[in-house]
Amino acid sequence: MGNVFSLGDEVEVNAASASAEDLAKFDTLTQLWGAQDLSISEPEVVALQETLDLLKETYGIMSSGNERIDRASAALSWPIRVPDLYIEMVGRKQPEALILLAHYSLLLNLAKDFWWLQGMSRQLLQTTYKSLPEYLRDSISWPLQDLIMSEFRN
User: Could you tell me the end-to-end alpha-carbon distance of the chain, in angstroms, rounded to an integer?
Assistant: First the structure.
């Protein structure tokens, strides 16, 4: 039996559907766990990279404009698909994991047409913003700006 949450098999869409500018923004997040940071273990780096790859993939799928994509299902599949270690890192409030979690709000904003998802992005960003050390808050400026723009588009 296939993976119920597989998004890319039935529809030929991938991260390339997102703009090059957006993909570059995602790619800059890898600097958060660069080789010089000895506080992050190798398994944590792998979990963060896998989580980022899933985020980019899902964002690309949702940005494709393909009407066959169920945006709510795509957005809600991301937290189910991330590695368990990443979830543990979020639970420990590791800044790198929280920053990726804040970027998950980009997916929620793309699925804002579903009434039961409205407000989730704002709540997620408020919580992660307060949990991040002040010097890292700039690293979630893209999701914060996206939230404001999505609210103005309503």
Answer: 40
Give 6: exposed, middle or buried? Use CB within 10 Å, 0-12, 13-18, 19+: exposed
Total tally of structural domains belonging to the chain:
1
What does the block give as tokens for 4? 């119920």
Per the domain annotation, does 149 fall within a domain?
yes
Q: State the Cα–Cα distance between residues 30 and 79, nearest whole angstrom.
A: 19
| 147 touches 105 (CB < 8 A) | yes
Which residues are within 8 A (CB) of 75 and not within 5 positions of it... i.e. 6 or more apart?
58, 62, 107, 108, 110, 111, 117
Structure tokens at 106: 């980009």
Q: What is the pLDDT of residues 8-56, one digit of tens each?
A: 444 444 444 567 888 889 989 998 887 556 688 999 999 999 999 999 9
**pTM, rounded to two decimals:** 0.83
* Amino acid of residue 107: L
What six digits make up the tokens of 41? 């273990």
CA distance 23 to 5: 22
Nearest to 90 by CA among 58, 44, 126: 44
Domain membership of residue 23 as a residue range: 15-153
Question: Does 143 fall in a domain?
Answer: yes
The answer to whether position 131 is within a domain reads yes
